[in-house]
Amino acid sequence: MPSGARSSLPLTTLVGSEYMPAFSPDGKQVAFVWSGEEGSDPQIYVKLIDAGTELRLSNLPGPLFVSRLVA
After folding, report:
1. Which sequence spans correspond to the domains of the chain?
2. Rounded distance between C-alpha atoms, residue 38 and residue 34, angstroms
3. Chain-centre distance for alpha carbon 17
4. Pair 43, 36: CB distance under 8 Å
5. 16/26 Cα distance (integer angstroms)
6. DSSP track, the chain
7. Does the predicted TM-score (pTM) go above 0.85?
8. Which of 20, 36, 57, 71 could bond 44 through an S-S bridge, CB–CB 3.0 to 4.6 Å?
9. pLDDT tens, 2-55?
């Protein structure tokens, strides 16, 4: 890789769709919506950037409509 080039690494390795990421002001956490392995009942999760397992923040039945996600 050339000097000064950047590479990207995934923040999670979850199966399914992850979307609407939002970083905390200190940049240490990311909140996101995950649709789950079956793609149903999306929920809000938060994860430390450099370690840890995702923490589920919501437990809402049915589709989740979020206009803006704030970490």
Report:
1. 12-71
2. 10
3. 10
4. yes
5. 27
6. --TT------S---SS-EEEEEE-TTSSEEEEEE-TTTT-S-EEEEEESSS---EE----SS----S----
7. no
8. 57
9. 667 788 878 888 898 898 999 999 999 999 999 888 877 889 999 999 888 899
